[in-house]
């Protein structure tokens, strides 16, 4: 069942593009902006008392975030690679290359129980500022990587993904859910069991998934839909590679403005939809992340200069 996504208010950040949002145990929300800052937002429930503080500056472009139990923050930086930000603000590079290539476009990261870090690379052909080129070209150069404890360089777990993006673990840690933005789907990658190391479809979606966020060990996986499915784009993806490359070159030169239809979903570990919320003609556009903070849903966006605070859906 689809319900309305109801924005209650907005919190300006003094910077554009809070691409990912994650909530800490105290209900504060962390995000990163295009100027390189990592921000923490307090008192989101009241726009008059909301406060934004700067925790660090990565010197690049932070995207996906993952809080660690010791208070440190993992950051996928589109320019610098996989980073660790200490509680005091110090920034350390954990990985900036894989399989002999510089990490061009790190997207999202999760920490596993064994101490290893799994993260996605959206594209090996297009940088962040040309992201639409990869969506149009359908390059299939996205990757899932794993950085083992004490390893100097990550290993490639999965290749050939269509704009690999958000990442979330299952409740029991037996598999990962990967968002493939360019294919409008979620993919399951098995970490343990007889199918370990294999991938399979998890869910087909009505739009382009971006960041994923797990609502606690027993909660659902929330999915931000950065845009609706576009039938002409699906048709283009079946065209020859040369046609797609030509279309991609045109797309990165054309002016872009996202549409006004936004949406988020929540799914359980069987891939069953728990919530689906949408809004048409929204003033807040291109939702790239969603998390729950207290009694609210918080939306991030690669496009907007702030975050949207929305009502929670009714329990099902």
Automatic annotation (TrEMBL):
Highest taxon of source: Bacteria
**So where does this one cross the membrane?**
none
A Pfam family (short name) is Str_synth
Strictosidine synthase conserved region domain location is 113-193
Entry's Gene Ontology molecular function annotations: hydrolase activity
* Keyword terms: Glycoprotein, Phosphoprotein
Family affiliation: Belongs to the strictosidine synthase family.
Name under which the protein is recorded: Strictosidine synthase
